[in-house]
Amino acid sequence: MKEITASMAGTVWQVLVSEGDEVTAGQTVIILESMKMEIPVDAADAGTVESIKFASGDFVNEGDVLVTLK
User: Fold this and answer.
1) pLDDT of amino acid 1
2) Using one digit for the tens of pLDDT, what is the confidence trace for 7-60?
3) Rounded to whole angstroms, what are the CA distances from 54 to 13, 69?
4) Alpha-carbon distance 12 to 40, whole Å?
5) pTM above 0.85, yes or no
6) Does residue 63 register a pLDDT over 90?
7) Of the CATH numbers 2.40.50.140, 3.30.565.10, 2.40.50.100, 3.10.20.30, which one belongs to the domain with range 2-69?
8) What spatial distance separates the first Cα and last Cα of the chain, rounded to whole Å?
9) Cα distance between residue 7 and residue 65, in whole Å
10) Residue 39 CA from chain centroid, whole number
């Protein structure tokens, strides 16, 4: 299982994938908002989205697992 983590603390602004979606390496899966800036969170590896841990509007801390891939 591969994990995609938050690179910084912020609010989940937009979730761009759904469970079961295929993602490619470098694809943006979530956009965080912090200090009025949009921060894309990209998949480091290709895989299938197994679970999404947070929804739009949720606050996350740096290092929190946002998405798991299988």
Assistant:
1) 83
2) 999 999 999 999 999 999 999 999 999 999 999 999 999 999 999 999 999 999
3) 10, 14
4) 10
5) yes
6) yes
7) 2.40.50.100
8) 5
9) 10
10) 10
